[in-house]
Design brief:
heterodimer; B: 235 residues; alpha/beta; Rossmann fold; globular; disordered C terminus
Chain lengths: 281, 235
Amino acid sequence: MSGIITELQYYFSYPFVRYALVVGVLVALCSSLFGVSLVLKRFSFIGDGLSHVAFGAMAFATMFKLANTTVLVMPLTVLAAIFLLRTGQNTRIKGDSAIAMLSVGALAVGYLIMNVFSVSANVSGDVCSTLFGSTTILTLTGAEVTICIVMSVIVVAFFVLFYNRIFAVTFDETFLRATGKKAELYNLMIAVITAVIIVLAMNLVGSLLITALLIFPALSAMRVMYSFRSVVIYAAVLSVLGAFAGMILSILFSTPVGATIVVMDILIYLINCLAGRILRH
Amino acid sequence: MAYITCRNLALGYDGKAIVSNLNFSISPGDYLMVVGENGAGKSTLIKTLLHLQEQQAGTIMVGDGLKPYEIGYLPQQTVVQRDFPATVWEIVLSGTLAHGGWRPFYTREQKTLAEEQMKVMGITDLKKQCYRHLSGGQQQRVLLARALCAASKIILLDEPVTGLDPRATMEFYGLLKELNEKGITVIMVSHDLQALSYASHVLHIDRDDSFFGTRKEYLRNEKSEVFRSTGGEEK
């Protein structure tokens, strides 16, 4: 045990490890908050679709050899979020296929761009790290960490200030509209913030695994909690724990960061399923 | 002066009217029942009255102190709500958002209002309960309390007894009757023949030849025959 602690102390002496932990915990917190709303609104697939779009946008951005890819990835993903929300509102099936089309299209085009306009010698390595995160979180610069902290504060502040309205629009959109409130506006804000979180989370777990950060904590919390507020708080706690434990484990055993976090989330989900079943009896 | 007066109203989608020539008015204290075949335009009428969609033609006049968006709405239950983790308190309180302006958190007044409406509905002891664990009848009371938090003059109910057992249905109708006797105007869209006995007025939607009048007039009108002969289900 003491061996592990000294080893951890050794790793923590490196700033990039501390950066990674800070960013990881913040991203996990933000994603779990909005994940609850996405899961309950049956919008999980929007998260999934957006993460693929973010991958395509990332490939597109590397083609231009941009120093900071976020300036291009962020607006493109936000645009896709607005588009998906618009189509999803008309009919269920049309929205579903729009998401499938967009996500698989972005994935294919992104991979194609990465191959044809490759900037580095190791194309499959690039693709792999964009899809599964792996190393990018350990190469964060101080500026990127600052951006992440600022964005997280904005996201959490937004969530707290609009908490009651987010609840109302999640539980019953039509009712909210009938009282003269702009439900579409809140929906739009939720979608846009989801896009922002996804772009932030791409560094951590890669674009393929982001959906896990969004939905697993929410689903786990819904297994044991009965009120919206407790689901939100518990999901946030679970998500932060999962991300923290996952990152520590991946450092200790040199496993891929993103995949380890997601495995932790799966374990947390299973434990909560069990707990929910026991509590109900 | 009536709360709502509709003249030559035409309802529909994308420029096509499915109902036209609708003329009716709702006065304070009325209990209006809206009937009509499936697809006749009942839901479209609801959406139009709630300002969720525009009418194709005609006018809707609001008067007697009623402002737009002052209709308490009890929607049909959605798939989302069936397994939604929320307490009764959270749901009822969300109805008061209608009065909150841009304040981010609930005020003391909003909380008092929610508590009062829960008392009226007899669900105060369910306050901390989870919505999805309630019976159908209790869930409808919760949604009714929320509607009353949003608006206290008119409530609009969209087939509220769907899925309720006969006893819960009767209890719910009794509750509505009490509210109506207290002076709250009720608009109810329903398939249920039983509800007819509570109504003061009936609007039967039928393309361009809809009926509007008191219940007595309706029962004498030939339109009510379809409704009666099939024992409540007017398919």
